[in-house]
């Protein structure tokens, strides 16, 4: 099965074969860049130059928003949620593009090409691609009886999408939603019993207030993070730890994992998720034959295309681009079962996942995205970087940042704005805090998970600065690299503002809320009809920030890090700035990989090369080498924070790294961080996260054997820290118990003091 597929795709695991690359790229350009086809740009889908900063990408929305106008629909047919005549023409033009693509490929006279060329770069499936394209074109044709017509009719059916009849309002404030508070109450009933089982303590001896609030999070890292995360979570579940968790959170591939776990495919069992992945990851998501088959055959065609059609036709102001196609292709691989028949439409909405958590049976998932806030360009003639004032440079550095957006089955929320909306209302336009219905009084359905899969994993929407950091290690040996590196490094601020690939567009619920939300909210967000959201790994590859939200009161944060750049990027340490800015107490400041740990191999080599002239000197060098190894992190590292804040910026970081064999005396401590990096392990030979070719973030093919290898590695690493993690959880439990008893004792003494004082008054 895999040998024939690899023959088509060639020996490299990171690149498509020439034929599929041409076809896939042509399909994308035909759908997402109409200027390249001899037709006019769709009036309902405004395509933009991809190489623009987010600020400029959102600028075109400003005029509409500034005028105070809400999104209008034109004349409606009475059934469709606000589709006007102009939008109908736009959809027809869009549909015709598929026909243009098929015709352009079909016009090639394959029979006239040499047989060897045809056999090598023009496989049979490419020759038959025009017919598949024409079939897909018929599916998305809005003619009566077409699939798109059926999907659009169902979009206005309140029995299928009950949320469309509801008016949504923006909740302003930083408090947790009533739904999440109710969930926490229900979940505590389960975690108390789970903790008793995990720590082997009679449940009757555990007071509800002593149960630690535990959050488990997974990193970004594509399919590597998805597979490794599933294995790590499965191990935590088997050990009894996962059932003690209140929250899970993810970035990129770990968001995909949460979607699978809370679906009819994963059935809330990570072993079943891994089994499902073995059936589905052996074929590249961009390989046209299986993708087109799923998009043109029932029942998967409606399942996969519903979100695409609802967004493309129902939100004419949104950009349609690579992220949307990417999400649809991801869904075709991840959300479709082995037999491709037993699909469940309930798997298509994040808000539907509340059916698994309302009773507290499972932890609440948190999905993450970021928006890149870029300062406005200098209005006058651009000033060369060497002539810019220090003030302007400082302003540029301090005003360009990523704001984090979280999604749970209950709410979509942004800390930077200090506001949120119900998850079921994501995808509809808002104005001045109220959702705007279509001409027929109905709103658009919630954005489908296939679209969100693309947003969660859209690492390719990185800035040019991120791209250069990715390729820099590869090109360091090229002649002239030094000069090029100096030039590009000096322009990093400029590279940091440019996104070559346009992020996804989602209607902005903060439109028109100027003066009513947090003062930290960037002003540009009040005038943009759409948000440009992307992979949260652009900011931090671990979803730490949402778990530090006030009200969630996390006691223990367990992080499984499958990042490709664990040591160099040091994602745990990146959180220090966030914690300092928000004056968060309890975070173990200064944690993460030791500074310079990425140069450990060089240090060891230098120690080896150094010649010892005496036995004492030799012993000293051995001790130095051991110090290098001891300072580095291992398979499991625990840090304990302080309950007090630093009083000054110059004060030394307060954190306590717990050695694996140490007893934990943390009676006055803060947050506990338990860190599991995906490192090579001698118990699983033949696999190395940094060196094994198939474990690249950009690899989208995993054989069952490779999945077994990654699963075994993650499992071996978890076992290394299993007992240390258990001791930490028990220590935090004992701390909470001790503090509660001390508080109760003090309250009892105060009660007796008041009673004694009251009795003493009778003797006066």
In a few lines, what is going on in this structure?
The relative contact order is 0.12.
Q: Sheet bearing the most strands, described?
A: 13 strands, mixed
Number of strands: 15
Helix content: 40-55%
Indicate the low-confidence ranges by residue numbers: 1-12, 14-87, 116-122, 378-389, 391-397, 597-613, 621-629, 646-653
- Which range does the strand content fall in? 5-15%
* Overall form: globular
Q: What number of domains?
A: 2
Q: Mean pLDDT score, rounded?
A: 77
Q: Number of helix segments?
A: 28
CA-CA gap between termini? 97 Å
> Gyration radius, to the nearest Å?
28 Å
Structural class: alpha+beta
Description of the molecule:
The longest helix is centred in the C-terminal third of the chain and has 57 residues, at 704-760. The N and C termini lie far apart (97 Å). α11 (222-239) links the parallel β2 (214-218) and β3. The chain folds into two domains: 2-172 and 283-376 and 395-463 and 498-538, no CATH class; 178-281 and 542-593 and 633-750, Cytosolic phospholipase A2 catalytic domain, CATH 3.40.1090.10. By secondary structure, it is of the alpha+beta class. Strands 1, 2, 3, 4, 5, 6, 7, 10, 11, 12, 13, 14 and 15 form a 13-stranded mixed β-sheet that branches. The chain has a two-stranded antiparallel ribbon with strand order 8-9. Its EC number is 3.1.1.5. This is Lysophospholipase. Belongs to the lysophospholipase family. InterPro entries: Acyl_Trfase/lysoPLipase, LysoPLipase_cat_dom. It comes from Gomphillus americanus.
